């Protein structure tokens, strides 16, 4: 069953992040991961498994790129899924962040610092292994994910997310990303993970 690309989950224009960036990001890049995932799954249905080899084999390359494409799809869906709000910070998630990091400001400082160093993604995740919230960093769609940790809030730090609008000024991009967050949605995600 082919995977279907999801539409952007918000209608309004974002603050700072242009429609041009969003169109490229969603319609070309995200949708491209969906198409590649479907192409890979089709090829996996016919590949020669007897030729599987750790150095090079068609099967091996398809499996490596499968995790890249699938990670790219889900991380972008989490990213787009929390945008479209007015950035008003609220809800139970804030109490949880205060409990874990000492204060919301402490969490935010760490989240921003992670954004300054990430080559791919910053993921605020609820980790079911220890029952705690963490800011995890992934340098690629298929590197750095923690098994059993559920994303609550995901920030794309690939250059395609900000370079058209901000050049190399990732700091201002991070500030604008925060202004566009929908904390009602973030709280819903957190509550559903906790259940
Ligand atoms: Fe992206």
List keywords for this structure.
mainly alpha; 3-stranded antiparallel β-sheet; globular; binds fe (iii) ion
Helix and strand pattern: HHHHEEEHHH
Strand order of the largest sheet: 2-1-3
Q: What's the multimeric state?
A: single chain
Mean pLDDT equals 97
Count of extended strands: 3
- Overall helicity: 40-55%
Unreliable residue runs: none
The biggest beta sheet is recorded as:
3 strands, antiparallel
Ligand set: fe (iii) ion
Strand content: 5-15%
Question: What is the molecular shape?
Answer: globular
Distance between the termini: 29 Å
The computed structural class is: mainly alpha
Number of DSSP helical runs: 7
Give Rg in angstroms.
18 Å
Can you tell me about this structure?
- There is one protein chain.
- The protein is mainly alpha-helical.
- Helix content is 51%, strand content 11%.
- It has helices spanning 19-44, 58-81, 92-101, 104-117, 163-166, 170-179, 183-194, and strands spanning 121-127, 132-138, 149-156.
- Strands 2-1-3 form a three-stranded antiparallel beta sheet.
- Helix 1 runs antiparallel to helix 2 (58-81) and helix 3 (92-101) crosses helix 4.
- The longest helix is centred in the first third of the chain and has 26 residues, at 19-44.
- It is globular and about 55 Å long.
- It starts with 18 loop residues before the first helix and ends with a helix.
- 26% of the residues are buried.
- It binds fe (iii) ion.
- Fe (iii) ion (FE) binds next to helix 1.
- The site of fe (iii) ion has 7 residues, from helix 1.
């Amino acid at each position: 069953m082919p995977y279907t690309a999801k539409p952007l989950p918000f209608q309004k224009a974002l603050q700072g992040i242009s429609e041009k960036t969003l169109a490229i990001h969603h319609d070309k890049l995200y949708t491209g991961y969906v198409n590649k995932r479907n192409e890979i799954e089709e090829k996996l249905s016919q590949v020669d498994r007897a030729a599987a080899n750790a150095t090079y084999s068609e099967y091996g390359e398809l499996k490596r790129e499968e995790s890249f494409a699938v990670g790219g799809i889900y991380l972008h869906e989490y990213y787009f899924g929390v945008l479209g709000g007015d950035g008003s910070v609220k809800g139970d998630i804030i109490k949880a962040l205060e409990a874990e990091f000492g204060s919301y400001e402490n969490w935010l400082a760490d989240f921003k610092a992670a954004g300054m160093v990430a080559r791919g993604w910053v993921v605020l995740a609820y980790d079911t292994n220890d029952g705690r919230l963490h800011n995890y960093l992934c340098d690629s769609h298929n590197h750095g994910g923690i098994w059993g940790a559920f994303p609550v809030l995901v920030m794309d730090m690939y250059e395609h997310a900000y370079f058209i609008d901000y050049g190399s000024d990732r700091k201002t991009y991070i500030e604008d990303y925060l202004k566009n967050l929908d904390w009602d949605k973030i709280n819903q995600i957190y509550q559903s993970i906790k259940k």
